[in-house]
Amino acid sequence: MNLFPYEPTLNLLPFDGIANYYGPILASCEAQDYFEALLTTVPWRNDEAVICGKRIITARKVAWYGDSSFSYTYSGTTKIALPWMKELRTLKSRVEEKVGCLFNSCLCNLYHDGGEGMGWHSDDEKALGQNTAIGSLSLGAERKFSLRHKRKGDSASISIQLENGSLLVMKGTTQTFWQHSVPKTAKIAKPRINLTFRTIVLGESRRVSRDG
What we know:
By secondary structure, the chain is of the alpha+beta class. The protein is built from three helices and 13 strands, in the order βαββββαββββββαββ. The strands form three sheets. The chain has a seven-stranded antiparallel beta sheet with strand order 1-11-8-13-6-3-2. Strands 7-12-9-10 form a four-stranded antiparallel beta sheet. The N and C termini lie far apart (about 50 Å).
């Protein structure tokens, strides 16, 4: 149960950033249709990370899309953006209409069940620029999403349940001062797809020919 109302103007963070929860922006049947379409048509691949010089393959799967063949490097690995699918382009427009800004890329995440999650991190790579917005659209299983202040830690933290079809937006200095995570849980047996719409700053990203 969420303690926060569906009020997009309400800042969930007490300071040093902005996080707005819009609640579900898709009807449950519509969200289910998009979930099933993306689950079967996106070329999901296991994510990779380089930690202390060791390459880790995650159970969680990802796909990276964009207006152009942007390269995006995070956790020591680089991905090249795929051209937009019809469903993703439509959802991007829906999110842009709600948020009031444009996005040029999307990192898609597939969590097969609650045994897969995301540890504490910030989306603060140079390619994302500074103080840009990230629109996070959730499809499928409801999952807990947590934020904690980098300096104050658990003494300044919040958690919210991201519902099927819901939109969460992080902007301002959130990535500079806060970390976020998707905790693992044995209580969730169903999959979730998370679409994180982003803005790649072209000066910090390399365009790669789709032919080479």
